[in-house]
Design a protein that fits this description.
This protein is mainly β. The chain is built from five helices and 15 strands. The protein has helices spanning about 1-15, 350-355, 360-365, 365-375, 400-415, and strands spanning about 25-40, 55-70, 75-100, 105-130, 135-160, 170-180, 185-195, 200, 205-215, 225-240, 270-280, 290-295, 305, 385, 425-429. A hairpin with a 2-residue loop joins strand 8 (about 200) and strand 9. The longest helix is centred in the last third of the chain and has 19 residues, at about 400-415.
Length: about 425
Amino acid sequence: MSMLRTALLGLILACRIHTARAQSVGGGISLGTPYHVSTMKGLPGLITCCAGYDHALGSIFEGHGQARFWIGNGIWLQTSLGYQSEKATFNADEPTVMDGGGIAVNGLIRHSLSTSMSAASLDLSAMTTVPGLRAMNISLGARLNAITSTAFSQESRIITPDNVRFENGARVRNAESGDIPGHQTMLTSILGRVGWTFDMRVLSVEPFAAFEAGITGVASGVSWQRHAVRLGVDILYHLPSSTEPEPEPTRPLPDVRYRPLARHIPDVMQPRRVNVQQADVPAEKPPLKLDLELTGVNMYGDSVPAQELKFRSVLSRIMAPMLPYIFHEEGSIIPASRYRFAQAGKQDFDLDSLSRNSSIIDIHYQSLNVIAERMRRHPEATLTITGNGAGAGSEENDQALAAARAAWSRDYLVNTWGIDPKRLRTESY
């Protein structure tokens, strides 16, 4: 139990050092097979005639809950609490000569040892994504199994010939069952895992393969190690971050023509009174003379004097400024949940309808779709995607995270919208 307390203390300290909350929480199940390796002749204190057991296979069912914490430099701390049940059977065949009614005959005795164990498990591991394969992740750590129950049954059975019995008059002897004698209360193992993430915005589904390499023996007094291989699936919920900066209000160029949409933008100068008079010029070319009194509005909604008004001829049906940024949750390569994305082969995105019926912020949340549609309309256009981090905290100098963010946007344009990858270039800072 001291090992379990040490592991729990390590988890608490890790969470205290990393003050940010979990990025993802969820759970899953797995099925697999244990692989027991042994040189024992039998369990300690039990009568057996077996020459020796060498290995056993069986089945495992496991369920768990987990949480992931962003550490930095492309690394997550992955923690998991679970419960598992497994069974395994050792078999050893012993060819021998037997008395078949006064005649020596060749026979076969099978020695069997069936075991079962249930345990509560605690996993602690470090996880990272594979460069170039952002959906693939690998992790390495340790697993502690606190044994909650054990059982065994053993026997020696005559397989052939059919007419031979043991000295007890039966075809079975040395039959025993009960708790595994001398079993350890805590099993430790090295844990490795490979997963593939299918992201669904707020949720993700992650099939995985895991292996365990046992460190401690299963029972005292015998040579008996336990390893395991499992296949499973996790479902994770990505928690929203409370620390991500919101997009700042955009400021238009001074010579941008005023439109009703600009009421969302600060410091836009608006005409308050216009008096139009006709000057004394020839009638064939009557110019207009404008007498304007101008005021502007600052970011607080107060009227301020306007020093200058510029006119510019613009031919456009709709104008809306766009931020050249995509914002992410802290430590995540996936854009924040407020952004909207299409599905491959099912694009119902209408750029013209979006421009007519949406606010500036709603258009911003469709930034990648707007870019994709414009690249479709202009096949000669190319695009450079720059990935970066927040420049502070857990994302400071995290080049791997910056590169993964740029790769995610590139893959979205290629896989969802069919943009030629040769037209896209990524860089990171």
